[in-house]
Amino acid sequence: VLALNGKIRKAGDKIFASNGKKVDFASALGSCEEAGGTLATPMNEEENQAVLSIVKQYNQYAYLGIKEGETPGQFKFINSMPLNYTKWHKYEPNGKGTEKCVEMYTDGSWNDKKCNMYRLTVCEF
């Protein structure tokens, strides 16, 4: 289970937390679900800023709870809901089906990325 050590941010009715561990996408999602949450899925600027503050604290890129759907270049939340808020980095997403996961950079922008990279685990509850 996640040891939180005060690495917690609140935005609206969501709580974001990190255990500081860098793992692949499936492991990050698994540890968030084990703790009773899911991977961080910022749905507005306030939530993106909350996740960003954790990303900055660790100075590590983090996976978000967003994956590419059946259509290359079309991303959605891992609960299959459509993205109604995005913060793509300039010229992203550009993986065209080869980069199915999404990471947050240390400036708060998003990039599509392969799912087997090791990124910071940030969960939401």
TrEMBL record:
An annotated GO cellular component of this protein is: extracellular space
GO molecular function per UniProt: carbohydrate binding; growth factor activity
Q: Which domain of life is it from?
A: Eukaryota
BP terms from Gene Ontology? ossification
For this protein, the record's InterPro entries field holds:
C-type_lectin-like, C-type_lectin-like/link_sf, C-type_lectin_CS, CLec_Tetranectin-domain, CTDL_fold
Q: Which PROSITE patterns match?
A: C_TYPE_LECTIN_1, C_TYPE_LECTIN_2
**Residues annotated as domain C-type lectin:** 16-124
Q: Which Pfam families match?
A: Lectin_C
Per the record, the major location class is: secreted
Kindly give the SMART domains that the UniProt entry links to this protein: CLECT (SM00034)
Question: Where does the record say this protein resides?
Answer: Secreted
Listed A to Z, the keywords are: Disulfide bond, Lectin, Secreted, Signal
| Coiled-coil parts of chain | none
Q: What is this protein called?
A: SFTPA protein
Q: Which organism is it from?
A: Semnornis frantzii
